[in-house]
Amino acid sequence: NQFDVVAVPLHDPSRGSNVLVTTATPNRITAESLAKAKAEFAHLFEKMTGPRIAVLIGGSTKSHKFTADEAHDLVTMLAPIPNLMITTSRRTGAEKDRLFRYTLGTAGNYIWDGQSPNPYQGMLAWADYILVTADSTAMISDAATTGKPVYILPMNGITRRQKLLVENLKTRGAVRDFDGALTP
Is there a contact between 111 and 100 (Cβ–Cβ < 8 Å)? Predict the structure, then answer.
């Protein structure tokens, strides 16, 4: 119908009289959904010592193959950080998922097994800081919606649209590049 309104993020070039432009990718993250997820996943995260760090890992896209070298670089970057709550995506790939599980699945860290109920929103709710790979506009947008400190983990082959989203959110103070330090 010509009167249907479509919401698109600022980095998407679609425009028209029925297009509502949002700062980031539209999502379902709300204060209410985070509160519900915090209660639902308390059994997983409440006993972790703080600060809790959610790590959201994407993977290969149409324009970029997430390589084993990139995965190893992420492991090297993340290994010194305690209290990680890690989730990978379908795009991460089984080999890289196993790498993250084997190297970062140490005591004090949590890695979602991909089988149990998905604690993604619980991780967002319990996190004091959020680290997210630069390839996922959805995960970046979700993380930025929480209002918590969000850091972008580097990935090669990021598209122009992905770069535009990150730059737009940096301008607004919602995200920053991860350089190894976590500050409020």
Answer: yes
